Amino acid sequence: MIARKSRENPKLTAPEIRKEQKLDDITVRTVQNRLIEVGLFGRRPAEKPFISPKNVKERLSFAKEHPNWTVDQWKSVLWSDESKFNMIGSDGKGYVRRPVNKRFDPKYTKGTVKFGGGNIMVWGCFSWHGLGPLRLVNGKMDRFQYQQILSETMLSHLEHLENSHPDENLIFQQDNDPKHKAKIITKWLQDNSVDVMQWPAQSPDLNPIENLWYEAERRMGGHKHKKSDELFKAVKKAWESIPKERLEKLVESMPRRCQAVIDSNGYATKY
User: Gene3D superfamilies, from UniProt (predicted)?
Assistant: First the structure.
């Protein structure tokens, strides 16, 4: 009865289970012990975005369309994204009671918000062939600033890759942020003959650049900065120190990422 209640709602604490089940004849410690006996330990929930049913289907469809892509095909993708870098500490985390090997089951994950305050926003890109340039976002990026970044930063890097690797049909990847899908952006990409990968919404775990953001932050060593320009310099230095071997391993992970989405039926994965 205790274990069943916890499995139905893994966010319930031992005192809450005792109260809801009217177990006045046993202690909270006894409830905790019984949960532990059946392998339900209190753990921090994995922080993964909640994914809508529509986007779950789109993710699964994308993964099923690409399981047979070779690493050579994934080498042709120019991955892009924006990320925040904080000048303040991170939020605290709660706990969830779950069985072993269920960390990324959507039932046991905690929703996150991608962007917050007290930070700078940075745009970047990379491919198998190397890191692309970083661009500091001025304030809140809208479709006009995004077009400027594409025109002044992304396109020149894409052309450099095309000149260096003329045998590859390069594809530009971007997520489904509304400003990325704006008519002005779609037209600009078409006018500049940029081949764009069709991308499923809510899929950061499919985009290997997310791992590079974490890598850059790790390489910054937890330093704190009071000014935006100082923080951006630190991010840029960390970004440029990431070795090419790391990029190659991330691109090589794409078949496994697609398979992980298939295995999770479209929900969040470990990536």
Answer: Ribonuclease H-like superfamily/Ribonuclease H (3.30.420.10)
pLDDT, position 168: 92
What b/e string do you get for 28-65 counting C-beta neighbours within 10 Å, with b at 16 or more?
A: eeebbebbeeeebeebebbebbebeeebbebbbebbee
Distance CA 148, CA 257 (A): 31
pLDDT given at position 234: 93
- Cα 258 to Cα 60: distance, rounded to the nearest angstrom: 8
- For residue 82, the cross-strand partners are 123
Q: What is the pLDDT of residues 114-168, one digit of tens each?
A: 444 478 999 999 999 999 999 999 999 999 999 999 999 999 999 999 999 999 9
Q: Which spans in the chain are helix H?
A: 2-8, 14-20, 28-37, 53-65, 71-74, 143-149, 155-164, 183-191, 209-219, 228-240, 244-252, 254-263
pTM over 0.85: no
Could you state, in order of their start, the residue ranges of all structural domains in the chain?
2-39, 53-92+112-263
The three-point CA angle 100-105-108 to 5° equals: 80
Average pLDDT on 220-249 reads 91
| Structure-block tokens of residue 254 | 């794409």
Give the C-alpha separation, 186 to 191, whole Å.
9
Residue type, 1: M
Question: Which value, to the nearest 10 degrees, does the dihedral of the CA atoms of residues 190, 196, 198, 200 take?
Answer: -110
- 225-230 long-range CB contacts below 8 Å, 24 or more apart? 225/87, 226/87, 228/87, 228/120, 228/136
Amino acid at 13: T
CATH class of 53-92+112-263: alpha beta
- The neighbouring-strand residues paired with 84 are 121
